[in-house]
Amino acid sequence: MSLKEGxxxxxxxxxxxxxxxxxxxxxxxxxLISFQLVFPQLNFPPYLTYGRLRPIHTNxxxxxxxxxxxxxxxxxxxxRLTKTPxxxxxxxxxxxxxxxxxxxxxxxxxxxxxxxxxxYAELEWPVALLVVILWVIFSANIIMTIVRRKEEQxxxxxxxxxxxxxxxxxxxxxxxxxxxxxxFKSYSAYAGANDANVQWxxxxxxxxxxxxxxxxxxFYYFLPKSTGVPIYSHRMGIIAFWSLIFMYLWTxxxxxxxxxxxxxxxxxxxxxxxxxxxxxxxxxFNGYFSMNGQWHQMRDNYLVKFLIFGITFYGLxxxxxxxxxxxxxSAFIHYTxxxxxxxxxxxxxxxxxxxxxxxxxxxxxxxGREIYSVTLVNLHFWLAVIGQLIxxxxxxxxxxxxxxxxxxxxxxxxxxxxxxxxxxxxYPYWHARAGAGVIYLISLLVFIYNMVKTVTSGxxxxxxxxxxxxxx
Length: 472
Ligand code: HEM
Ligand code: HEM
Known about the structure:
single chain; 18 helices; Cytochrome C Oxidase, Chain A; globular; 472 residues; mainly alpha; two-stranded antiparallel ribbon; binds protoporphyrin IX containing FE
């Protein structure tokens, strides 16, 4: 605890530092697996093969970088919006240790080949149990802080934070119901099509509750903070919030179109996915309308640039996603590289840009130092955006070509291309993706260098955390 308000900002700093470290690991592994696809000799069996490193990449990215950053930013935001110090700073410090233990255990067990074979739910039951404890501790701290709040109104960000806490808990518990057969092996409590349905109900709502509601909480808090003008419509934000939560829960089966899952379940998922455009774009419009008369800040204020680019990629993502959920389009792009293109526009363009904005806002306030170099901030921004665009665009083009080749047939109905022929055609695109990964990695190193220099030798500023909190 530091300041006169008693806000627990040491844990915010701790989570920020560790999430950046895990983010670096995630991107390094992402770059490595991209190179492994083009240079198979970079696979070192048994531990460092593509099959084992891919889940390490996704877990480090989503849980280490994503959730670690959200923990930092939620602690910061909740204390300011409730005008109340964290309920238990001691518990939060324990949470930081447990968080790092869990992510490290995840990396080690996945490298050893312990894997439940469910995407984003790979961790075997002992590690999954630790995740549950971690989440309960985190949720209790935030919820108790909100319960004891001195500010009566719950600003929109707090609604998104609460949804994240409840949503992740429900999803994780249901999809992790397993029957353990040993310390390192368990079987799902569900079978066949039911298992698939539960898995993708979880999988897509992980997109909702980890890659959508937390960045929205952050966006809604930091946009007005950065521009200095309030959000365009709090009411629109709340209506969009409830519709988003209601609609997301029905969309999971859009990952299972053309499978043995009942047809009506697929159609339901398709319909709700399309309806999701409305609440998603309500947030985009709320962001854009909040910029009325403030668009010049896109040039003058780098925080705004990160946030507005971020919400724009969110807007594009939530148009592309619903179109992928339509049966005919899904038949074309599913099982192709189009999908990683979609994923990384969201992960790099939306989620990561918004987190970067949050951290650039926090560091001067928490450490009392001005950002070391604004030039480096801009370099970071453009390299990140260029890397992300090359990644996504190359994968979309690859996906369309791959889909066309996989579908091409001869007059007698046989396939025109063998699978291997379609595979070989992917090489130029995979080279482009590896290059994009290197650009993104450089952007991240620029960010880290700038952060370290800010903390160690940035000019002292008047903007302390307590000063920031009085504007909360
Ligand atoms: C309206 C909102 C959205 C809809 C309807 C939607 C729809 C879809 C669909 C249909 C797929 C499956 C593609 C396939 O395999 O054929 C997919 C995959 C995915 N989407 Fe989205 N999307 C949306 C927003 C987002 C956002 C904001 C993110 C954030 C990063 C995101 C991340 C992902 C991820 C990670 C996958 C890959 C899942 C996997 O197969 O492992 N989506 N999305
Ligand atoms: C620029 C650095 C990155 C590179 C080079 C990279 C590379 C990759 C590669 C090669 C894959 C496997 C694609 C496949 O299965 O065909 C992948 C999957 C994935 N990555 Fe990344 N990644 C990067 C950053 C990130 C970040 C920062 C996040 C999240 C915040 C992320 C989230 C994911 C997810 C969710 C998947 C699974 C996608 C799916 O199943 O369709 N990645 N990444």
